Amino acid sequence: MSENLSYIVFTDFDGTIAVNDIGDAMFNRFGDIDVCTESFEQYRNGEIDARDCWKKGFASIPSVTKDDFVTFAYSQSVDLHFKTFVEFCSEKNISINVLSDGYDAYIDPVLKREGLDWLPRFSNRLQFNDDGTVEPIFPYTDAECKRCANCKRNHLLTKSSDDNVIVYIGDGISDRCPAQFADIVFAKDSLVSFCETHNITFHRFENFSDVLKNFRMMIETKKPRKRRTAELARKDVFMME
Predict the structure, then answer these.
(1) % of the chain surpassing 90 pLDDT
(2) What pLDDT, on a 0 to 100 scale, did the predictor assign at position 232?
(3) In CATH, which of 3.40.50.1000, 3.40.50.2300, 3.40.50.1100, 3.30.360.10 is domain 2-20+77-125+138-240?
(4) CB within 8 A of 74, min separation 6: which ones?
(5) What is the pLDDT of residues 56-68, one digit of tens each?
(6) Confidence (pLDDT) at 3
(7) Concatenated DSSP letters for 78-117?
(8) pLDDT at position 97, please?
(9) Separation of first and last alpha carbons in the chain
């Protein structure tokens, strides 16, 4: 079966493709950081879900125009090695999907600036109202589990096939769920401790140079292979539907 397998890549955006968490920077720039910090702590502790966390944060933004927001987005940096990783995957006909619990209003301008706006991406959305308020919209929340605003697990499952070896790259809380369903996991920051605690095999990285080095070695020296526990977890999800 391994002869017919091919790789598919899913990657987080904030703190992974983007050097910093742009969502945090967004509230530092436009909102009330005390309110946002408190709501994030409630989210991290499981007291509220991601949608409520986001709504509290955006409610603290008094007024912002879309132009001001785009200018802010253009000031954000991305991993210098990400484009090289994308080019490598393109050469190998390996698709890359960007999954984010953040927002199109900063993801789209940043990827466009980098010449990577052709990458498929799935995120929450921002609506800029005439009165200067900003409204978060959540088109990809899971009907049963609302822990995350954008269910990355569902994207991972629906956009891959039985012939795919699923690669996931991430760093934070919203990456914990999809990491459990991926065959190959690249982790940094808080995702590392989660993988260690839950016995998920992973490759530690600091930037996409590390990811590229390890991923190239896998492709060149090993046959594609699924992680048994992840494969069973994916099957369990489909059986429950």
Answers:
(1) 86
(2) 95
(3) 3.40.50.1000
(4) 109, 110, 113
(5) 999 999 999 999 9
(6) 61
(7) B-TTHHHHHHHHHHTT--EEEEEEEEHHHHHHHHHHTT-T
(8) 98
(9) 26
Q: Hey, is 139 helix, strand or coil? A: coil
**Measured distance CA(231)–CA(97) in Å, rounded:** 19
What pLDDT was estimated at residue 1?
A: 44
Q: How far is CA 80 from CA 10, 16, 73, 77, 84, in A?
A: 18, 11, 16, 8, 8
How far is C-alpha 221 from the chain's CA centre?
28
Composition of the chain by helix, strand, coil, percent to 5 = 45, 15, 35
- Cα angle: 236, vertex 146, 55; to 5 degrees: 160
Measure Cα distances from 236 to 3, 155, 229, 231, 241 in Å: 25, 16, 11, 9, 9
Q: Phi and psi at residue 24, in whole multiples of 5°?
A: -65, -45
Instruction: Judge whether residue 2 has pLDDT over 70.
Output: no
DSSP state of 55: H
> CB 28: neighbour CB atoms within 10 A?
13
Q: Which residues contact 125 (CB under 8 A, 6 or more apart)?
A: 103, 104, 105, 136, 137, 138, 139
Region 91-102: what's the mean pLDDT?
Answer: 97
pTM, full prediction: 0.95
Query: What single-letter amino acid sits at 52?
Result: D
